[in-house]
Amino acid sequence: MEQVVMNYFWFNQTLTKAVEEPRFHHQLLPNFLRIERVRPISLAVQEGLKELGHNITEFSSAVVQAAATSPDGKLYGKADPRKGSWAAGF
How far is CA 87 from each of CA 7, 18, 60, 64, rounded to the nearest angstrom? Predict the structure, then answer.
């Protein structure tokens, strides 16, 4: 998902943190903001979004599997804990 990529590259989060962060999706038509049910964003953020006029609904999040190469050339993987799996190497 785009949020995982942004968390990793733009916000310099570790691969683990980037995958485990709460996710959301904004839909323009119809206009609503979906937050995931499993790992929701904080209630304070939700209330702030509602005050700005956002219609918030919940959804079951999609899971991701991520891989990245470190500066030293090692390959790292992270399985999404929402799925209950793990990263395996070769």
Answer: 19, 15, 22, 11
